[in-house]
Write a structure and sequence with these properties.
Blueprint (H helix, E strand, L loop, with lengths): L18 H10 L3 H14 L3 E3 L3 H12 L5 H11 L3 H5 L7 H14 L12 H11 L4 H12 L11 H8 L3 H11 L12 H12 L5 H9 L1 H5 L4 H7 L3 H12 L7 H4 L10 E6 L2 E6 L7 E3 L2 H6 L5 H37 L1 H6 L9 H8 L3 H7 L4 E4 L2 E4 L7 E3 L5 E3 H13 L9 H12 L5 H10 L5 H4 L4
Parallel strand pairs: 2-5
Antiparallel strand pairs: 1-4, 2-3, 5-6, 7-8
C-alpha cells in the first residue's frame, strides 16, 4: 500500500475554558478568607487594578485636605489645648477620683484586639518539662526524663518501651524505670503510662485508694468486664451487692484514663460568616459580609498608559486591563450568585429559620438550581466553604441540603430533623432506662408518622457519636 500526504478540512465544535472562565469558577468555590487573599494578590500583581475609596473615607480625605491650609502654630496650640492633661495640673483638687484616673490608664489596654492579649495554650510537653526542671532528679536522670517526655503521645501515653528509651539515652533499663516512675507522678497524674490499667492504678495510688484490694483488682483485671457491663460475675467473685459495686464504679469513673487530653486538643476554629440572615418583622433580610473585601476599580493610570504606547507594551496594558475588568465582573457575579442561593434556601427552608432544625425540610442541589435557573455544579461550588449566620446559629450552606424520609401521609421530612429529634429524645431519657434504637423508632413513628428502621436509627445515632443504650445505662 502506497503512503501519501493529503490535506483535509474538518469542521468541529469544541468547548474550551478560557483562563477568565476558569478564574470565575475558581472564585465561586473560594471561602471568604481565601477570596480576600486572592483579591489582595491581584492588587499587587495588576497595576491597573486599585482599591476604591468608599464615601466615608472620601469625605474624611476631603476634610483632611481642607485642613492643610491651616498654619502649623495655630494647629499645634489647638491640639495642645484639646489634649492637655488637666487632671495632672489640678492634682488633689480634681473632681474625679484616683480610681477613675487609674481606670483611664487601663482603657488603651482594654481597647486592643483580643488576639493581641490572647496567651497561647500550654502544651503537654512544656508542662511536663517545667515540672522536670523543678524536680530533685539528677542531671543524668533529667536527660532520661526529657527522652521519656519526648516520647509521650497527645493522649498522655508513652509510645516507646523502656528498652527503647534506654537505648536512646545510652543508659540501662534499670536507670530508666525510676525516672519513668517519677514522671508518671507529675501533673497530670498517670501521664507516661503504657496501658490504661497502669494509668488508673497510678491515680488510685496517689489518691490513697490502693489499700482497697477489690478496687485495685477491678481496675487491674476486670476493666473489660466493667466496660461491657458484665456485672453479675463480678458480684459473685467479690461477694458484693449492686450498691457496693456502684461505689467502686463511681471512683473509677472519677479517674482520667487519658491524662493528656486536656493538653492535646486543638484550638477552636473561628468562622467568619459569608452571609448574615436577620429577621425583620415577618421577613428575612440577607446581608452579605463584605468586611475586609476591597472595593475594586480600574486605575486612573489606564488612560495615561495608552498614550504613545505601541507594540508589545500596548498588548500588555490591554491584557492587564481585561484581567482587571473580568475580576471585578467575576466578584460581582459571585456575590450575586451567593445572594440568590441564600434567598432560595430561605424560600425552601423557611421553617428552619422560623423554628430551628426540627423544621428542616429535605432539599437537594437540583431544587435550588432549578429555582434560580443555574446549573447544579454552580450551586455546589457556591455552597462550598460558605457559612451563614442565622437566628439559630452559624451553619455551613451544605447543612441545608439533606436527604428525605417518607411520611405516612405521602409527605417528606429531612434527615437532619430526624437526627435532631433522636438527639433530643436521648437527651431527655431516663439514664437508668435508656431508650433502645427500636423504641426510638416507635417514638418517631408516633410523633412524625415516619417509618424508620432500627438500623437507620442506629446509623444516625452513630453519626452523632452517641453510644448505644447498653453503654448509656447507669447502674442503680
Amino acid at each position: 500500500m502506497a503512503l501519501e500526504l493529503r490535506q483535509q478540512l474538518k469542521l468541529s465544535q469544541q468547548l474550551v475554558m478560557t483562563p477568565q472562565l476558569q478564574q470565575a469558577i475558581r472564585l465561586l468555590q473560594l471561602s471568604r478568607l481565601e477570596l480576600v487573599e486572592t483579591v489582595q494578590q491581584e492588587l499587587l500583581e495588576n497595576p491597573f487594578l486599585e482599591e476604591g475609596m468608599d464615601e466615608g473615607a472620601a469625605s474624611s480625605a476631603s476634610e483632611a485636605s481642607s485642613r492643610k491650609d491651616e498654619s502649623a502654630p495655630e494647629a499645634y496650640d489647638r491640639e495642645l489645648s484639646r489634649n492637655a492633661d488637666w487632671e495632672d495640673y489640678l492634682g488633689e483638687f480634681a473632681s474625679s477620683s484616683r480610681q477613675a484616673q487609674v481606670r483611664e490608664t487601663e482603657l488603651p489596654e482594654e481597647m486592643t484586639a483580643f488576639e493581641a492579649r490572647y496567651s497561647a495554650r500550654p502544651s503537654l510537653e512544656g508542662h511536663l518539662m517545667w515540672q522536670l526542671r523543678l524536680s530533685r532528679l539528677t542531671e543524668d536522670q533529667k536527660g532520661i526524663g526529657e527522652t521519656i517526655i519526648g516520647n509521650i503521645g497527645s493522649s498522655g501515653y508513652l509510645q516507646a518501651s523502656v528498652e527503647d528509651i534506654a537505648e536512646m539515652c545510652g543508659a540501662d533499663a534499670s536507670e530508666v524505670i525510676p525516672v519513668l516512675h517519677a514522671v508518671q507522678r507529675f501533673d497530670p497524674v498517670g501521664v507516661a503510662s503504657r496501658t490504661p490499667q497502669e494509668c488508673l492504678l497510678i491515680q488510685i495510688e496517689m489518691l490513697g485508694y490502693d489499700r482497697d484490694r477489690v478496687l485495685v483488682e477491678l481496675v487491674r483485671d476486670h476493666l473489660e468486664d466493667l466496660e461491657t457491663r458484665r456485672y453479675k460475675p463480678l458480684l459473685r467473685k467479690f461477694k458484693l451487692d449492686m450498691d457496693d459495686l456502684k461505689e467502686y464504679l463511681d471512683i473509677i469513673q472519677s479517674l482520667d484514663p487519658m491524662p493528656g487530653s486536656s493538653f492535646g486538643g486543638s484550638d477552636p476554629m473561628f468562622v467568619s460568616p459569608d452571609v448574615f440572615v436577620y429577621k425583620y418583622d415577618d421577613e428575612f433580610v440577607i446581608v452579605l459580609n463584605d468586611d475586609g473585601l476591597p472595593h475594586l476599580q480600574l486605575s486612573s493610570l489606564y488612560d495615561q498608559s495608552l498614550a504613545g504606547v505601541t507594540g508589545k507594551d500596548k498588548d500588555f496594558v490591554q491584557e492587564k486591563v481585561r484581567s482587571a475588568s473580568w475580576l471585578i465582573k467575576s466578584l460581582y457575579q459571585r456575590q450575586r450568585t451567593l445572594y440568590k442561593v441564600v434567598e432560595s434556601i430561605i424560600k425552601y427552608q423557611r421553617g428552619f429559620f422560623e423554628d430551628g432544625v426540627t423544621r428542616l425540610r429535605p432539599l437537594i442541589l437540583k431544587d435550588i438550581a432549578d429555582d434560580i435557573s443555574m446549573h447544579e455544579s454552580t450551586v455546589s461550588r457556591i455552597t462550598t466553604n460558605k457559612f451563614v449566620a442565622t437566628p439559630h446559629g452559624v451553619f455551613e450552606l451544605k447543612f441545608f441540603f439533606n436527604s428525605a424520609l417518607e411520611l405516612d401521609d405521602g409527605s417528606q421530612v429531612g434527615s437532619e430533623s430526624v437526627k435532631a429529634l433522636i438527639k433530643k429524645l436521648i437527651g431527655e431519657e431516663n439514664p437508668k432506662e435508656p431508650l433502645s434504637d427500636e423504641r426510638i423508632g416507635e417514638i418517631l413513628k408516633e410523633q412524625l408518622q415516619v417509618n424508620i428502621a432500627r438500623r437507620t436509627v442506629a446509623k444516625y445515632r452513630t453519626a452523632m457519636n452517641i453510644p448505644s443504650s447498653s453503654k448509656r445505662k447507669e447502674v442503680f
